[in-house]
Design brief:
The protein is mostly helical. It has 4 helices and 2 strands. A two-stranded antiparallel sheet has the order 1-2. It is globular and about 60 Å long.
C-alpha cells in the first residue's frame, strides 16, 4: 500500500456536508425540530425573501420559507404553517432560528 492510499477500514478524519455537523434539537413550544444545518438550496430560498417585494410583503414570504424549513426538520406528525408561526413566535425568534440552523451560537 502506498502512502496516499487509505486502508479499506479507515474512516476519513474530515467530513463535509449537512450530516457531518450535529447539533442538539430545538423546540418551539411543545414541538421539537432537528437542527440539520441549512442546505445551499435553503440558503438561496432565504436570500430570495423580499427580493423586489414591498416591505409589507416580506414577513409573510419569510414565514412561508421558515415554515418549509421547519417542516423539513419536524420530528412529529404535525405540520407547521404560517398561522401557527404567527401565534407561537416572537419577532426575535425568526433571526434566532435561522442563525441556529446556520450553525451560529444562540444569543441569550
Amino acid at each position: 500500500m502506498t502512502q496516499t492510499e487509505m486502508p479499506p477500514t479507515a474512516v476519513p478524519s474530515v467530513k463535509f456536508g449537512r450530516e457531518a455537523r450535529t447539533r442538539p434539537p430545538f423546540a418551539i413550544n411543545e414541538l421539537e425540530f432537528r437542527a440539520t444545518p441549512l442546505s445551499l438550496s435553503e440558503e438561496q430560498q432565504l436570500a430570495g425573501v423580499g427580493a423586489g417585494a414591498a416591505e409589507r410583503e416580506v414577513l409573510p414570504e419569510l414565514l412561508e420559507v421558515l415554515a418549509t424549513l421547519l417542516n423539513a426538520r419536524h420530528t412529529g406528525d404535525e405540520a407547521v404553517d404560517v398561522p401557527w408561526l404567527m401565534e407561537n413566535l416572537m419577532g426575535e425568534d425568526l433571526e434566532g432560528i435561522v442563525a441556529y440552523l446556520r450553525g451560529e451560537t444562540p444569543q441569550e
